Amino acid sequence: MEPSAKSPNVFLFTSKSEGAKYGYDFDGWHPDGTFHYTGEGTVGDQVMKNGNRVTRDHLEEGRALRLFEKAGTSVIYIGEFSVPDESHVLLDEAPDVNQTDLRAVFVFRLKPIGETWEGPVAVAPAATLAMSVPIEATHIDKYIQQRQSSEPVISLRSEAELVKKYVKWLESRRGATVERQAIPTPGGHLMYTDVFVIESQELIEAKSSSSRHHIRAALGQILDYARYVQHSKLAILTPTEPEPAMVELLHSYGVSAIWEAEVKGEFVSKRITNVWKDAP
User: Fold this and answer.
1) How far apart are alpha carbons 226 and 241 in whole angstroms?
2) Burial, 256: exposed, middle or buried (Cβ in 10 Å; 0-12, 13-18, 19+)?
């Protein structure tokens, strides 16, 4: 974002290859005819100042937004855009420049003014509601890639293995049909749930540890997902039994606790309401 000092313009530059380094991977055309453009700031939550503020307030200041795309050594002028109102400024999350922490970022829904150049810019999916997708528990690398998480890769691998074992147990011991849910975020990404059991309509979030930190994180995620996925029950899946205080915390929010039993390949649970008989 570069406000011009010599003309009433704000120059916006987008690049798929360079943007991915900074978590700026929302950029692109969307089916509603707007171009999503990630805000300014590479570390920590983005704030509404400098280039972000000028972009939001460009109409009040009498400035035009000019969007350019960097393609190799070339720069292509896409066209003039506007941010008509506050509804065109979204908040989403993306990794920071170090690819470690997730932070809040602005996503500007730029409305084109007149003709625009629409060359190699990718069009995002048109999804607006949660969608059923096949379970990816047996594809560990893809599972990790789809998890927008700041957790270390080793933790995500442990989480993926736990999901794989639990899905196998559900299918072989309970005859359950299991899938995942893909939930679109405001900026155009997809959040993937861990397990959704069709017969019981149970939405399950898995964690690689039963520690307080992991239980609290899982509780926040499952309550967030529950707003978008029609369900009857919620549960947290961990590799070991959580301490009683953490189970009590989950139950206070209507969430059951499931964990791997000492008997290899078995799982037990403490539920709000039991649908299936728990393993011994």
Assistant:
1) 23
2) buried
Question: Phi and psi at residue 274, in whole multiples of 5°?
Answer: -80, 135
Write out pLDDT tens, residues 251-273: 999 999 999 988 777 898 887 65
- CATH class, domain 131-270, is alpha beta
End-to-end CA distance of the chain: 60
Where along the chain do the CATH 3.40.1350 domains lie?
131-270
Q: What rounded mean pLDDT belongs to the chain? A: 81
Q: What is the pLDDT of residues 132-145, one digit of tens each?
A: 777 754 555 555 55
Q: What is the largest CA-CA distance in the chain?
A: 75
Tokens of 204: 């399950």
Specify the pTM. 0.60
CA-atom Rg of the chain in angstroms: 22
CATH architecture assignment, domain 2-113: Roll (2.30)
Cα separation, 230 vs 202, in Å, equals: 9
Half-sphere exposure of 277 (CA within 13 A, CB side): 2
